[in-house]
Amino acid sequence: MRVANIDGRLALAVDGGHIDVETASGGRFGPDAQAVYDEWAAFTEWAAALDSAGRPRIEVTARTVWGAPVPRPRQVFAIGLNYADHAAESRIAVPPVPAVFTKFPTAISGPEQPIVLPTATVDWEVELVVVIGTRCDRVVADRAWDHVAGVTVGQDISERTLQLQGAAPQFSLAKSYRGFAPMGPELVTVDELPNRDDLEIGCSLAGGDVLQRGRTSAMIFPIPALIAHLSSVCPLLPGDVVFTGTPDGVGMARTPQQFLSPGDTLVSWIEGVGTMRNPLVSPGVDAPAV
Question: Does residue 287 belong to any structural domain of this protein?
Answer without folding.
Answer: no
